[in-house]
Each structure stands twice: as C-alpha cells, then as structure tokens.
Design a protein that fits this description.
Elements (H helix, E strand, L loop, with lengths): L1 E4 L5 H9 L4 E6 L4 H5 L3 E3 L8 H11 L4 E3 L3 H8 L2 H6 L3 E3 L3
Parallel strand pairs: 1-2, 1-4, 2-3, 4-5
Length: 98
Amino acid sequence: MNILITAATSAKAYSLKNKLTYDNTVMGDHDVPEVMIASGKMLRLPDPQSSSYAHQMLALCLDNKIEKVYLLRDEEAKLLLEAEQLFNEYGISLVHEV
C-alpha cells in the first residue's frame, strides 16, 4: 500500500511515519525545498490556496498510486474531506485524526 503523509516539514509527520508499518510511505508538503524533492522520498504537494486543490491532490495521488493520505494540517483536511467521496471512488482513503 502506498501512503502519503502531508505536512512533511513538521515533527508530527515524522513521528507518524515512524509509527506506521507500511513500506511505501511518502512524505509531502506544498512548501518543500527542491533538495528534499530530489531524494525521491518527498513530494511537492499543491498549494491549499489553489481553487482546484482537491483535484490537483487527486491527480497527484493517482499518478503516484497513493491509496491512503494522512492529512496533518487542518486546512488541507477541511478542503479534501469535502471531496472525500470523490477520493473514495478512486480507492483513496483520507485520514485526518491521527
């Protein structure tokens, strides 16, 4: 299973990653230095301020075969949980309370 944890620049994201037992866990954030993206273990996420944020996140998840997204920022969670049914239709589960 491919997992995405948002808020990759936060300590909470790394703490969660260490607790999960999934092999294919990727971290992501919308404000990440290029050097961190180049390593391949981090994704640049769309900016939550974008009017098409949910669709951009869905496309990113589909492109990277992400099946579960842990949303660590309330702003992201609010926007994506409004589109949760759409994500579910593609087999992507959204988790906010962790």
